[in-house]
Amino acid sequence: MLIIDSKEADSIDKLLKKYKKKFDQTGTVKQLRARQHFTKKSVSSRNQRLKAAYTQSYLKSLEG
Questions:
Q1: Is 14 helix (H, G, I), strand (E, B) or coil?
Q2: What's the CA gap between 24 and 31, in Å, rounded?
């Protein structure tokens, strides 16, 4: 359960924005989408390695 601290001066739009931000930070939607289908451990680890390799190559290209 998400708890949003509100003040009397805060508008509903501002409170909704805070709620959406907290909801995105928890990663609930990402987790639910991942649970919709089964992925083998080998596939998920391969995806992690590919993502790490891409990130490293991207950072290396920024340096030089």
A1: helix
A2: 11
Listed in sequence order, the residues at least 6 apart from 23 whose beta carbon sits closer than 8 Å to its beta carbon are 2, 29
Question: Using CA of residue 31, residue 32, residue 33, residue 37, what is the dihedral sign?
Answer: positive
Which residue type, as a one-letter code, is found at position 36?
A: Q
Query: pTM for this one?
Result: 0.54
- Residue in the structure block whose two tokens are 């290396």: 60
Tokens 């992690």 belong to 48
Query: Is 2 in contact with 22 (CB distance < 8 Å)?
Result: yes
Higher pLDDT, 50 or 3: 50
Contact between 6 and 15 (Cβ < 8 Å):
yes
